[in-house]
């Protein structure tokens, strides 16, 4: 699809667009006191595909320079909705190269294009970082020929370490986990039905048992072959904090500027009865064994385990969760268990 006097082409991305998409990701960073670049190196298109069963990624190409000007789209995967396995689409957000941010006028065309590609999905949703105020202002205002972004609530991503062996835990012994998937996790909306997606990374399963029954468990994935967080710089109070030995106080050590963060990502976290003390002891034991500089877990505001993470020593940041609605179908509700590993 061409627009703006045939200057630009809007199309579905493929592997040939990797270099252009990579340049867009490398040109942007999270704003705020901690400036981080979220990357999908070395092959961004394949990284998107690893997060689900399919990826409908759109790219806008400058026909004169052959450069990629913008990228966005959706990752499609099977997730639980009200206890049923449903086809869902996570909208990845729009990234525009700085050279084109004031020249592109294409939003309605892009959304119409994308909707046709994912119209068979039971649910479409997305997240926007709290600090991204321009995007929040733009998408929360209803616009003609655009889907509605209906705010559902707050999602917190926690980064922690504080590693110390406080429990006896087992490694890669999954007996009993399938039953948890059918009962505990299936009862939460947006939990991926398949825990083997490549986007979770190279996974290790940790669990604690009592008389053979799982009382706490999670996967820890090494995603760094697909996704990376690059620490760019610190500002304000974080500049001073980054120079302190924060690990001595149980907080993650601040990564040095201009380095890739050695992170592991937690998924399918289960704690029997949402016991806060058990959660703390289990996660600190996992942190001690997993071997990463920090671990990352995310929870929606109605996830009971957020209360336990709030009492741990963490560095955290927030996002806003939205149902993206093209028609009159109901928005999401209930307990939401989406995994930060696939966002």
Give the SSE map.
Elements: E1 2-3, E2 8-12, H1 18-26, E3 34-39, H2 44-50, E4 54-62, E5 68-81, E6 84-91, E7 95-96, H3 107-118, E8 123-129, H4 133-140, E9 148-160, E10 170-171, H5 177-183, E11 202-210, E12 213-222, E13 228-234, H6 237-241, E14 259-260, E15 263-271, H7 276-290, E16 294-300, H8 305-310, E17 314-325
Parallel strand pairs: 6-8, 15-16
Antiparallel strand pairs: 1-2, 2-4, 3-13, 4-5, 5-6, 5-7, 8-17, 9-16, 9-17, 10-11, 11-12, 12-15, 13-14
Largest sheet: 14 strands, mixed
Number of DSSP helical runs:
8
Cα-to-Cα separation, first versus last residue: 28 Å
Tally of extended strands?
Answer: 17
Structure description:
The protein is an alpha+beta fold and 343 residues long. It is built from eight helices and 17 strands. It has helices at residues 18-26, 44-50, 107-118, 133-140, 177-183, 237-241, 276-290, 305-310, and strands at 2-3, 8-12, 34-39, 54-62, 68-81, 84-91, 95-96, 123-129, 148-160, 170-171, 202-210, 213-222, 228-234, 259-260, 263-271, 294-300, 314-325. The strands form two sheets. Strands 1, 2, 4, 5, 6, 7, 8, 9, 10, 11, 12, 15, 16 and 17 form a 14-stranded mixed sheet that branches. It has a three-stranded antiparallel sheet with strand order 3-13-14. The protein is globular. The relative contact order is 0.18. The model has no long low-confidence stretch (mean pLDDT 92).
